[in-house]
Design brief:
Elements: E1 2-6, H1 11-22, E2 26-31, H2 38-44, E3 48-51, E4 64-67, H3 76-83, E5 88-90, H4 91-100, E6 104-109, H5 114-127, E7 133-135, E8 147-148, E9 154-158, E10 163-165, E11 168-171, E12 180-183, H6 197-209, E13 216-220, H7 224-231, E14 238-241, E15 247-251, E16 257-261, E17 264-269, H8 275-291, H9 296-303, E18 314-319, E19 322-327, H10 332-346, E20 351-355, H11 360-363, H12 368-374, E21 380-384, H13 392-395, E22 403-406, H14 409-419, E23 425-429, H15 437-454
Parallel strand pairs: 1-2, 1-4, 2-3, 4-5, 6-9, 6-12, 7-9, 12-13, 13-14, 19-23, 20-21, 20-23, 21-22
Antiparallel strand pairs: 7-8, 10-11, 15-16, 16-17, 18-19
Helix pairs in contact: 5-8, 5-9, 6-7, 8-9, 10-12, 14-15
């Protein structure tokens, strides 16, 4: 079958493209501003990419058009497809019908931690020799790719609550029909499609409704929002993480993590990941893998070799003894958690937080009242204020003189370079490319270092 994918450079749709090709289909696709890393990954596979959404692409005569949720009415190619009554389907539905139908699906849902937890879970199954397929919204460094078909009946998928397509406003995860479902956490987000928390909770309950009675739900027992979802009706066994009547992770004096289930020791995890959030992610992955047949001790051994995900506290470079990190954090809870995790590692060293409020919800100003509080753990805060519809400097006022906002990227980079000193940790947070700030900043700081050497 020849499928043509609209919006192919998104992580999810690009993953579908890779999986479809691996399954033997001919795959082509298009997007606006064909961009890396997905464009590079797809081109390396020989997948033809077309810039833009011209109506002429119908002349490719694919058997089916697969539509990403970036596409809306008014898109010229979509309008041509509709006018000519050509066959089309959403990405999640195509995946469900063509790949997941005969799989044991392990789906990871939640406001935060989906990518990391999915990566942990896929790696545990891989370590156990199960060769799972997966589709993850990032690149797990243990694999180096975001998606693959796999060589077994197991498939791990990052289960996003964002809507499916312009013609299907249900959350993507409703299509996945998991046998094992992780509910990591639940907060209000995606203000561009959800009016309130209750609407998101309803979508999560749609997911709960389709998990079979012989399946398993792994839920964060510390989250009242998730407990409220489960109280609406649950027909599946539930194992909770973070509570005494479920899975727990206790940090020992040497930094190791003692894992227990129902009060019984399951083993000790030695790893380098930071923070409570990653311990909770690990518990969820261990519980889900156990349901799929992996002994907990084997899961713990796998996590000891887990290398995390790109853009999750990823060190981009060190110059002048200044460490620059890249992190995907873009929600106040994730921002706070990320800073706290870095603080636990660097202790009293200075943390320079650099934030681009880039998500749709952030750009709408939904979290502006919570933003300053989420940044209090940093020693100084630099924010990028371009293209916002609200007053970022005003929102940062509670932080006083330790926070500053810039409208121009070059000015922001110059200010960080002038402020940073040896021993500092520069934590850059954005869910987008941030104008290539990481490389530009490292280059600028390296130039300063070279000038210092030259001047003696």
């Amino acid at each position: 079958m020849h499928i043509h994918i609209l919006g192919i450079c998104g992580t999810f749709m690009g993953g579908i493209a890779a999986i479809a090709q691996e399954a033997g289909h001919k795959v082509t696709g298009c997007d606006a501003g064909v961009y890396p890393p997905m464009s590079t990954q797809l081109k390396s596979r020989g997948i033809e990419l077309i810039e833009g959404f011209s109506s002429e692409q119908t002349r490719l005569n694919p058997d089916l058009f697969v539509i990403g949720n970036v596409v809306s009415r008014g898109n010229p190619l979509m309008e041509e497809i509709l006018d000519r009554n050509l066959p089309y389907i959403s990405g999640p539905q195509w995946l469900s019908e063509n790949v997941l139908r005969d799989k044991w699906v392990l789906a990871v849902a939640g406001t935060h931690g989906k990518t990391t937890t999915s990566s942990m879970l896929a790696w545990i199954l891989e370590y156990a020799g199960m060769e799972p397929g997966f589709l993850i919204g990032g690149i797990p460094q243990n694999f180096g790719i975001s998606a693959r078909l796999g060589n077994s009946g197991f498939f791990v998928i990052e289960a996003d609550e964002y809507d499916t397509a312009f013609f299907d406003k249900r959350s993507k995860f409703v299509h996945f029909h998991p046998r094992t479902a992780i509910l990591n956490n639940l907060e209000y987000d995606h203000a561009d499609i959800f009016r309130n928390l209750e609407e998101i909770e309803q979508q999560f309950h749609h997911l709960v409704r389709v998990v079979p009675g012989k399946g398993l739900i792994v839920s964060n027992g510390q989250e009242e929002n998730l407990e409220r979802v489960l109280r609406k009706g649950c027909w599946t066994p539930v194992e909770r993480i973070g509570v005494a009547n479920g899975w727990e992770a206790d940090v020992l004096t040497d930094g190791a993590v003692a894992v227990s289930f129902l009060g019984e020791s399951q083993g000790t995890l030695l790893w380098e990941l930071l923070g409570k959030h990653n311990r909770m992610n690990a518990l969820a992955a261990l519980a889900a893998a156990r349901h799929a047949g992996v002994a907990v001790k084997a899961g713990i051994a796998a996590l000891a070799e887990f290398r995390n995900v790109k853009r999750r506290m990823e060190v981009k470079g060190i110059t002048r003894d200044i460490t620059v990190y890249d992190d995907f954090a873009h929600h106040p809870t994730a921002i706070r958690t990320t800073i706290d995790g870095l603080r636990s590692r660097v202790k009293g060293a200075r943390i320079i937080a650099v934030l681009e409020p880039r998500s749709n919800t952030m750009k709408m100003g939904v979290w502006k009242e919570s933003l300053a509080d989420s940044l209090t753990g940093a020693d100084v805060v630099f924010c990028y204020a371009a293209n916002l519809g609200w007053d970022l400097p005003q929102a940062l006022l509670p932080l006083g003189e330790k926070a500053v906002a810039f409208e121009e990227l070059d000015q922001l980079i110059a200010a960080i370079t002038a402020y940073a000193q040896p021993g500092d940790h520069v934590l850059i947070m954005s869910n987008a490319g941030f104008g290539g700030i990481h490389e530009k900043l490292l280059t600028r700081m390296a130039a300063v270092a070279a000038d210092e050497v030259a001047s003696g």
